[in-house]
Prior knowledge:
By secondary structure, the protein is mainly beta.
Amino acid sequence: MKLLFPNGEHDAVEIGPGDVLVGAGADCAVMLAAPGIAPQHCKLYERDGQTFAQPLGDAVTVLNGKQITAEASIKPGDLLLFARVGARVVASAPAATVPRRSLPAGEEDGRTRVRMALPKFVMRGVSGPTFGKTFGVIGTLTLGRSAECDISIASDEISRHHAKLQVVPDGVMVEDMGSANGTFVNNQRVHGSTLMRHGDELRLDTVRFMLMSPAAEATSSAQRPAEPVASVAPAKSGKSVWIIVALIVIAAIAAAVLRHLGKI
């Protein structure tokens, strides 16, 4: 099988028996220069006639709209998303590959030019077993203790099927799935469903997430005014201070002499 990038962003990559590393590192067969790409982001390989994708570390890899956290089988027609960069899996038999768009001389460095966006929303774990991890929110996802959930959380306080997330035009709709300990958005218990927006907190008992929109973060950073630089008055040099002191002393002596002579 081969890995193709939309709009000719990268040459077709053959996935063979050996490991095909995807990442930002120079040792990767597929080098992706994009935010969120780890030095070694994902590994692609064949085994026993099947092809697999395996995320490395906590790197965000999405297969057909569902984030994967372990080895997953891939087949022709599947869509992979590595952080902000997307790719399509195709069979090797058809020789049709997407030609790369030509670049001006001197600008070709073999790296992928970013064209596909991150998921509209991501959730960042801020406590519990998901602390420090990032999960892409695409389509509809379930959260719970069960391994069948899209985001499986190993915590006894989490119900097997705890909550459901669904991306909508204005944000992410959160629905409690009859959990024992409840689902909370900004410390307000969810009854039925509640809309979450960029910056809101989702809490499942003691496990907390922050919903983030990469696009909103980028806009906020661009519009944030620069910090004013406090002006600091230049310090007077030690030489200037001594000159002033000397002038005061001379003036005092002169006044004393004139007073002694009766001039003042």
